[in-house]
Specification:
flat, mainly alpha, 46% helix
């Protein structure tokens, strides 16, 4: 049997560390999607489409998601959290203005007036 030597192993087969900054060898290139993840996502979407709203494919994926929203709202909210934009800003890209219950009446009135002024 012919013994092969790989970078990172000495002749006895003992693993030795690569030097710092060595050229990357093998593996997936930068920006290349993981094939397993794509296959799994496609399979999940296909299964949900096949099940639909009534278990027989009625309204496809939208029907399935509608059923999940009604029967398992917590799971559906988790899905929404993945598709709704993460960063929300106020008008014109500014901060969101909030009036909270722990504000004094004067603070709440001032915040409300500021909001009216900025909305013109």
């Amino acid at each position: 049997m012919v013994e092969r030597y790989f970078p990172g192993k000495d002749k006895s087969g003992k693993i030795i560390p690569f030097p710092k900054g060595h050229k990357k060898m093998g593996g997936r290139g930068k920006g290349t999607p993981n094939k397993t993840t794509k296959i799994l996502k496609d399979a999940i979407l296909l299964a949900a489409t096949d099940v639909g709203e009534d278990g027989s494919g009625k309204d496809g994926l939208v029907g399935y998601l509608r059923t999940i929203a009604m029967r398992c709202p917590q799971a559906f909210v988790g899905l929404l959290g993945r598709v709704i934009p993460v960063q929300i800003t106020g008008e014109g890209g500014g901060p969101i203005r909030m009036i909270t219950m722990d504000m004094s009446n004067a603070e709440a009135a001032q915040a409300y007036q500021d909001t009216l002024k900025s909305n013109g």
